[in-house]
Design a protein that fits this description.
13 helices; about 325 residues; hpI Integrase, Chain A; 3 strands
């Protein structure tokens, strides 16, 4: 079935809703898939309308899934109904208070500097193969860029040779999340790593503008897939003996959290005004707003510890501990 093809009686409305959201700049792939699932159910049920009864029946088809996944599907259907209600006030709208609970937010693993060193050492031990002659070089560079720039995994694998500006020492991240592009400056050390990598890459393949920066020979010069890169990095974390609190290798995205937390810690330790610098970090990381940056960073324990130490250094003398009173006679 075509991604623009919806076969149920609600299909035209679904298509208009999806088209509107995408025109507004939304990444709507997950919602489109969820609505396509609903559309197929309604079509198989004889093309009936979405009512309280059919909604409940549809929800029973995915009771085996985790609560957060079920909630996301129900939310997609509810937003469709709210869109539909603009022109049909009598249409059914699911009651969101009856939806299952959302997943708890995963606590990120913040890599220590020692763990980053161990991962880089593990990358140095990777052996080249016919399918990946630059296995070692590619994944060393991947770790360096993820740790020093906070790139998302998808942003990393989409980089091409043309995105690197050796004069300005910047990477162009094109139309990433929220359809935003940005220039990411590299540190002197990260630039040196990239230049050294390109010198080796030039031996194997012409450095054309559209050549993937992280070259993968087994894909005939195409970039790594997100899943392939994630799987390889988790294997690298396992080789380096890096584990999260659950005893499993961290996610690739945890390097992005690490970049942000380490940046904030440097500012705290230097005595800088972190609140004033949050907009810079937000722009650097490609967040849609400062709230997105502050939302997950202020709850990471190292930042709380650093803030507490700063408060104690500056205001500790003003805090008077109440004397302990003796037991009542």
């Amino acid at each position: 079935m075509s991604p623009n093809s919806f076969a149920s009686s609600l299909g035209p409305t679904i298509l208009r809703h999806v088209t509107l959201k995408e025109a507004l700049g939304r990444h709507f792939d997950a919602e489109r898939w969820n609505l396509a699932h609903l559309d197929r159910f309604l079509a198989a049920d004889g093309g009936t309308d979405l009512t309280a009864t059919t909604f409940a029946a549809w929800c029973r088809t995915f009771t085996h899934l985790k609560s957060g996944v079920r909630r996301a599907r129900m939310q997609a259907a509810r937003k469709l109904c709210l869109y539909r209600r603009r022109t049909d006030p009598s249409c059914f709208v699911p009651d969101a208070t009856q939806f299952p609970a959302q997943h708890q937010r995963l606590r990120p693993h913040i890599f220590t500097e020692d763990e980053v060193v161990r991962v880089l050492e593990a990358a140095e031990g990777l052996e080249p193969s016919n399918n990946s002659p630059l296995h070692r070089e590619v994944f060393r560079l991947a770790i360096v860029l993820l740790y020093t720039t906070g790139l998302r995994r998808r942003e990393l694998i989409r980089l091409t040779i043309a995105d690197w500006d050796p004069v300005e020492r910047t990477l162009l991240v094109r139309t990433s999340k929220f359809f935003k592009s940005r220039l990411v400056p590299l540190s002197k050390d990260a630039s040196s790593e990239l230049i050294a990598y390109l010198a080796i890459l030039a031996i194997h393949v012409p450095l054309l503008g559209d050549t993937p920066l992280l070259w993968h020979r087994s894909a005939h010069g195409r970039a790594y897939s997100g899943g392939g890169m994630g799987h390889a990095l988790r294997r690298l974390f396992r080789l380096a003996g890096v584990q999260n609190d659950a005893g499993i290798p961290p996610r690739t995205h945890d390097l992005r959290h690490t970049f942000a937390v380490h940046a904030l810690l440097r500012w705290y330790r230097a005595g800088d005004d972190v609140q004033a610098k949050l907009p810079y970090l937000s722009t650097f990381m490609g967040h849609v707003s400062i709230d997105s940056t502050a939302y997950y960073l202020h709850f990471v324990q190292p930042l709380a510890d650093a803030a507490s130490r700063r408060f104690a250094d500056r205001c500790g003398a003003l805090v008077v501990v109440a004397p302990t009173t003796g037991a009542a006679s």
